[in-house]
Amino acid sequence: MDLGICKKCGEFEGFCKCGNGAIIIDAKKREVVSKFLSGLLRHFGHKYGLRIDKHGWTSLDEVTKIISKKYNVGTDAIKLIVKFDKKNRFEIKNSKIRAKYGHTIDVDVNWSENEFIPNKLYHGTHPKNVLSILNEGLKPMKRKEVHLSSTIQDAIEVGKRYAKKPAIFEINAKSLIKSGFKVRKKGKVYTTDFVPPEFLRLLKL
Ligand code: HQG
Prior knowledge:
By secondary structure, this protein is of the alpha+beta class. The chain is built from 6 helices and 12 strands. Ligand HQG binds near residues 87, 125, 126, 133 and 136.
């Protein structure tokens, strides 16, 4: 959906209620810029000269410079992308920006541990990974953390990036936490460092 700003209605996604608002970035460009922003903050910022600190923060001004050069959009558009992101992937604080999860670069996204964590969480993957996951557990692989979903439906969406009929694991998050593992809520996603096999159950869908 398009993103825009209206003097009367404020920031909006889709349509402005009064009809006088201006579109700041259209839906198509929003998706492209959002993917690039994820890439910059999680994977390849250094290739664009971006300095990302140990907690994943970097200067919003610097990010804006890179993005406006490449896509001809300004800070307004970036702020709207962050605000209306469906999965709440990013955060902006004191003119700094970071991705909350998904990094391959070596950062430690410091996080409060006091969020409510559901007893069960889910993970969608390619069926070819099932045996190895049952044997070795869920590992972060190229990323810094393992990513989990709060619903089977969300896990299916994640798994569909790999296969039409993904395999879905149920994670006993309650026992995982009881055993000393930290589970964090980051936007719509839950993360942890590792899930040993004894906390995993393959679902028959
Ligand atoms: C698999 C997107 C074999 C794991 C998504 C997964 C998510 C193993 C892959 C977020 C394994 C890693 C992250 C083992 C794990 N043997 N395979 N022992 N342990 N794997 O991309 O969860 O839209 O790093 O099952 O929605 O797919 O970008 O993780 O298939 O929330 O914000 O190794 O990225 O979010 O793949 O995706 P990934 P993921 P965004």
